[in-house]
Amino acid sequence: MRTAIIGVGVIGNVHREVLLEQKKNVVALCDVNVEKTKAFSDIPVYTDYREMIEKERPDVVHICTPHYLHADMVVYALERDIHVLCEKPLCIKTEDIARILEAEEKSKAQLGVCFQNRYKYCNTYVKEYLAGKEVKGAIGFVPWKRDADYYHSAAWRGTWSQEGGGVLINQAIHTLDLLQWMLGMPDFITASWSNLVLKEAIEVEDTITLAASGNSRFTLFATNGLGVSFSTEIKIKTDKDVIRVCDNKVEINGENVYIEHNTKYHGKPCYGNGHGDLIADFYECIETGRKFPIDGKEAAKAVQLVLAAYASNGEAVKI
What we know:
With 319 residues, this protein is of the alpha/beta class. It contains ten helices and 15 strands.
């Protein structure tokens, strides 16, 4: 299969590294920043993704661009029956969810979205452990640092129109996705968000508290306004157990029951070690015809939760 990557920034290079390790046939790259593309002289580079798709006719495209560009690029490729692996989030507007799902339904190609933490073995362990158990409550913590330099590194960061939000849609969306994946989609979201530390750098939130209720109940607290980053953590209470997932370990009632020894990361350690397994599974799904588990409908769940949180202003919003 012929593969192309749209967006060769930090996360685009993670995809390229994994693809080369897995000996995939990367035939072209695309980025509007010509300086970034100069580093790649071994394959064709483009500044217009439409031109690249029409000239190179790839079988698969990886979309690793800023958030606000995802929807148009996903639809364009799917309408041409090109398989798409898109970085999170799938999109940043409610109206884009419907048109992406319509394009996916009509296309002969598959759509996958990178929620790579679903491929971390400690998370799959917990998902399987919870099967058939009644969950009494759960909470996720994302206590990170992102400073002004991080946001000033690209004009789209920290904006409602292009990033779509702040810590929730960019960093904490992975933990939010894990909570709904493990526990199920809730019926309502109530949230309160603020900009406590980064007022001079961003127009979006740096801190948010979110409560999910109804069919599934959990709470999420996330901030990127700390002076240092701490480990992401999920705690779940069942009838008999308290389960904690943190630092590649699963604890049940205070005892380690699972330790993940795969510590090879692509890109930043905070990305986790799931990109390799996710990308390998996506290509296997294409080759075998098996449906990729994180398709458009599945990835849209996290976007729906995020957008409900932003619309909440302290009031319950129905999903």
